[in-house]
Amino acid sequence: MLHTLMKSPFSSNITLLTNMLKTSDDFLALQDGVLIALIDNIFLKNIIMSSAKLYLIKEDVYARGIHKNISNKFVLISYIHFVSLTLKHKQQMTW
After folding, report:
1. Per-residue DSSP letter, 27
2. Which GO terms describe its molecular function (predicted)?
3. Model confidence over 7-48: pLDDT tens digits?
4. For the whole model, what pTM was predicted?
5. Are 47 and 27 in contact (CB under 8 A)?
6. Which one of 5, 53, 83, 86 is most buried, counting C-beta atoms within 10 A?
7. Measured distance CA(9)–CA(89) in Å, rounded
8. Is residue 9 a contact partner of residue 36, using CB atoms and an 8 Å limit?
C-alpha cells in the first residue's frame, strides 16, 4: 500500500498512520506533509521505526527551505517517481 501524507503531521493522526504501516508499504510525504521528516520532530522516531520505505517529494522539501534539516532515513524523489509509486501500489491511502 502507498500511504501519502499531504497535510502537516500536526494536523494528522500520525499514531494511526504509523501503526498501519507494513514492510511492503511505501510512505510518501508531500506538500506540508514533508514536515514529518524534520530532525527533532516529535513524530520522526515513530515513522522511522516503521518498516515501510520512506520518501519525500524533493520539490516540496526545497520549497519549504528544510532540505538541510531533514532525516537521512527519507529518500528525496521527484513527482515522476511519485507516479511510479502510484503504479506500483494498487491500494493507496491519503492522510
Report:
1. E
2. transferase activity
3. 999 999 999 999 999 999 999 999 999 999 999 999 999 999
4. 0.94
5. yes
6. 5
7. 23
8. yes
Strand pairing of 75-77 and 2-5?
unpaired
* 78 phi and psi angles, rounded to 5 deg: -95, 170
Tens digits of residue pLDDT in 48-86: 999 899 999 999 999 999 999 999 999 999 999 999 999
Q: Which amino acid is at 6?
A: M
What are the two backbone dihedrals, phi and then psi, of residue 28, each rounded to the nearest 5 degrees? -125, 125
C-alpha cell at 56: 519525500
β-bridge partners, 28: 4, 55
Which three three-digit cell numbers place residue 91? 491500494
